[in-house]
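Appendix B. Chain record.
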Amino acid sequence: MIARVLTVAGSDSGGGAGIEADLKTITALGGYGCTAITGLTAQNTLGVKDVHPVPPDFVALAMRCVIEDIGVDAIKLGMLTNAAIIRAVAATLPDSVPMVLDPVMVATSGAVLLPDEAIAALIETLIPRAALITPNLPEAAKITGLPVGTQAERLAAGQRLLEMGAKAALIKGGHGTGAALTDLLVTRDSVVEITLPRIESRSTHGTGCTMSSAIATSLAQGLALEASVRRARDYLQAAIATAPGLGAGHGPVNHLVSIEAVRL
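Structure tokens predicted for this chain:
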């Protein structure tokens, strides 16, 4: 049976992030994507113009409809908009399915997507349920209250996330500096550094959504955690390198990079 991935996240009218990026990624990596939309955004590569939250009960209903009929092998959580939606999602999550938590707080353009009271709800109800949490450096600092300027500090932030209940933490290095980019995969048994050349590009919109969805897809397909993270990192690296260059701001990556082009 094809691996089934439920993404619970916001919709991006520009198609580069959120539900749209998730579905492209899941499909490109061979999974079947289902959705529960938490909010509608009006945005493009230049920024987020407005966000319209979906009622929490409706988000939970959409999740149950998928879980009870189609079934899910992994769940990815992205932009959750507010505390009420976070608590509704937490109450609906099945215990037996791995959940990848992408703690979306601020858009690439700088727009705040998660207020402080919602971050508190995320810490309380979702981090303890996460098979993996995938914060970028600003998100890791915000959640843990720790500095993330050095590798040692980033490792400490990852370990703090484990203390907060996550089974594993991926501290992403994309917001760092230098010619190389290093992600830290922190578990209770090991610390794995995944280093790749940094690609200088303005086409970085939706990279967090893409990465977390790729990991969730691989977990749904039965890959181990480290293998899932490495596959996702390689996929995202290629997607950035071959980005189509759309828009005047932070453009989308090439989600279809893993699919061989069919020429008519």
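Further analysis of this model is presented in Appendix C.
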